[in-house]
Amino acid sequence: MAERVEIFEVGPRDGLQNEARIIPTSEKIALVDLLSEAGFRRIEVASFVSPKWVPQMASSGEVLAGIRRRPGISYAGLVPNMKGYEAARAAGVDEIAVFASASEGFSKANLNATIAESLSRFAPVLAAAEADAIPVRGYVSCVVECPFDGAVDPADTTRVAKALRDAGCYEISLGDTVGRGTPEAVDAMLHAVIKAVPADMLAGHFHDTSGRALENIDVALTHGLRVFDAAVGGLGGCPYAPDAAGNVATEAVLEHLKSAGYETGLDADVISQAAVMAQEMRHV
Ligand code: HMG
Ligand code: MG
């Protein structure tokens, strides 16, 4: 039987958060409802951050209230602090994600906090989530390169990944936020991180600015990673990472994994319809 690799769909969050046009909530709901038919186990649909920082995500609660929840799918949302946690819980997310950076420059730009400050803000979030039995995923951004600080030392990425794991995150998603990571840099980074956090607790989150995301996924597969984040239609970017392009496209990852002999459990027809819908949302 073919080995299984999971694609974690992040399009409705990472894909849409950077769109300049404020997308009507009904369109976001339609995208999530279509994605729910594709076979994903987890879909990131919301972000409970400051609406002044990321206006596009201000409708997150309404999106969660409006979608048709399919049993067996975990609908996820980003949370930067306790205020976000309370909003996420009220909206009924199935899981949350906290997000830190391996570099100080991006941490300041994205969270208005040092890495240490951000980790200490997450501590009460993790405690509350544990009490409420809400699973917490952890992101590390800028795992190989930072738009402000340049190349990132694998030891820095390892330190932050380990801190999130020790704090109780069930999985750590390693983000090439700028999408300019080379396979060599990703390889060196993973060599280091895997000494502290096992491969089965890691996910790859590659943006595709340089067009090398699929190669980076191949490198991560050789290190034993079996979960990859992707966005339908290759939407996205991060508002606080100048120059960053979208996430690697779900349909491209699906095709790539299929031709390498992996099973994803996803319906390629539904994914391609969702990719068209996602692309249309940005061109209205
Ligand atoms: P701050 O300005 O330092 O926050 O921002 P503050 O605590 O001083 O509060 C300022 C105002 O924000 C107050 O309101 C708070 O109530 C409000 P005011 O009194 O001015 O009316 N506030 C909030 N409102 C709603 N929800 C909240 C919240 N928290 C405070 N949760 C803060 C700090 C963390 C809030 C801000 O920096 C922020 O929202 N940052 C989020 C940036 C973001 O969403 N970036 C994109 C996601 S990360 C990403 O894309 C990378 C990833 O994909 C992985 C990868 O690719 O690497 C995950
Ligand atoms: Mg991202």
Automatic annotation (TrEMBL):
PROSITE patterns hit by this protein: PYR_CT (PS50991)
GO molecular function: hydroxymethylglutaryl-CoA lyase activity; metal ion binding
Enzyme Commission number(s) of this protein: 4.1.3.4
GO terms for biological process, alphabetical: ketone body biosynthetic process; L-leucine catabolic process
Keywords: Lyase, Metal-binding
Domain Pyruvate carboxyltransferase: 5-272
Keyword Magnesium set for record: no
Domain of life: Bacteria
Metabolic or biological pathway, per its Swiss-Prot or TrEMBL entry: Metabolic intermediate metabolism; (S)-3-hydroxy-3-methylglutaryl-CoA degradation; acetoacetate from (S)-3-hydroxy-3-methylglutaryl-CoA: step 1/1
InterPro entries: Aldolase_TIM, HMGL, PYR_CT
Protein family according to the UniProt entry: Belongs to the HMG-CoA lyase family.
UniProt protein name: hydroxymethylglutaryl-CoA lyase
Species name: Litoreibacter roseus
